[in-house]
Amino acid sequence: MHEQIKNINTLDELSALYTATFGKNGTMTARLKEMKNMDNNARAALNLENQTLRELFKTRQAEIENAVLMAGLKKQKLDVSLNTSPENRGTLHPMTQSLIEISEILQSFGYTPHTGPEIEDDWHNFTALNTPDYHPARDMQDSFFLENGNVMRTQTSAIQIRTMEKTGAPIKMFGIGATYRKEMDATHAPMFGQIEGLYVNKNITMSDLIGDIRAFLKRFFEMDAVELRIRPSYFPFTDPSIEVDLKWKNGRWLEIMGAGMVHPNVLRNCGINPDQYQGFAFGFGWDRLAMLKYGLPDLRDFRGNDVRWLKSAGF
Ligand code: DAH
Question: Is 196 near ligand 1, meaning CB less than 6 Å away?
Fold first, then answer.
């Protein structure tokens, strides 16, 4: 009987044998009825046998149930190594990533972000920036002029003017946005992103300017030490004007940005008294900064929006 139970493989057969053993007309049931006629030893033996059999049935039932379950699971098995159709996970464009980063750094220095229109009038793009009609500086940039005399903004410096006109001094802001010029090669695009910082307050000096530029470049390029070269330059809206070069990791000097002390005429044009307030400003192309950071040679790839290129460049 014990062997018989152990060899059963289906619940149906097991249940049939169980009934034949313990059911109303079962063999064990019949034997138990005879118990009263037995001596103590026989009675104890029968009790033991009764209990053992019940245990055996229980154990075998659990075994069969488990085997059935396992067989079922095997059939339903999920193949997690199976290839699915490829999903592209989107990422922020590297230009956007650097823009966010630059913007966060400047804000942590206390500069507040501002934007302005991309189609500018002559006043905000040139005249208020101390660049009158006859000024040769207008030839420095090949501008897209519209028929009505407006211009596609050539520099985010226009945002400085709009912001100063609105809020006066003191002010610590940065302008951010697209700018347009007629140029196109590996490092220039007709539309590019510019960022412009401006700080106007009492007793502002050139060393405040250089300090902020140094701190900014250190953070953005994640450099331990920043070596700068300050060259005299010319912009109509700053005086003195400088050009800032950064010593790159390979020892080469890279031109990074233009800057200077805000020209008194510019402050005056925005209703700020230059005898009370001084300011500094700096401006740079953020596309260019991003290219340098990621070591990319051609700006046009950056703006091409070709996902295959972006992936091959590791973005
Ligand atoms: N607007 C200049 C350009 O587009 C960049 C620039 C230079 C901005 C000096 C400034 C500055 O604010 O002080 O080339």
Answer: yes
Pocket test for ligand 1, best of 120, 204, 282, 286 (most atoms within 8 A of CB): 282
Considering the domain architecture, whether residues 41 and 168 belong to the same structural domain is answered as: no
Tell me what pLDDT residue 80 has.
80
Total residues found in the chain within this entry:
315
Last residue of a domain, one of 75, 105, 140: 75
Return the amino acid letter for 220: F
Give a yes or no: residue 86 inside a domain: no
Q: Are residues 102 and 69 in the same domain?
A: no
Q: Is 173 in the pocket of ligand 1 (CB under 6 A)?
A: no
Do 58 and 141 sit in the same domain of this protein?
Answer: no
Q: What is the pTM of this model?
A: 0.71
**Where in the sequence is the domain holding 294, given as residue range(s)?**
94-312
Percent of the chain with pLDDT over 70: 98
Same domain, 153 and 289: yes
Which tokens is 140 given?
């420095």
Cα-to-centroid distance, 137 and ligand 1 (Å): 12
Q: How far apart are CA 206 and CA 242, in angstroms?
A: 10
**Does 131 contact ligand 1 (Cβ within 6 A)?**
no
The C-alpha atoms of residue 53 and residue 58 are separated, in whole angstroms, by 9
Nearest C-alpha to atom 4 of ligand 1 is from which residue?
155
CATH number for the domain including 178? 3.30.930.10
> How far is C-alpha 93 from the geometric centre of its chain's CA atoms?
9
Query: Can you tell me the mean pLDDT for 198-215?
Result: 97
- Both 169 and 71 in a single domain? no
pLDDT at residue 95 above 90?
Answer: no
Shared domain check, 146 and 71: no
Pocket test for ligand 1, best of 124, 129, 152, 157 (most atoms within 8 A of CB): 157
Q: Is 174 in the pocket of ligand 1 (CB under 6 A)?
A: no
- Is there a cis peptide before residue 264, judged by omega within 30 degrees of 0? no
Tell me the Cα Rg of the chain.
42
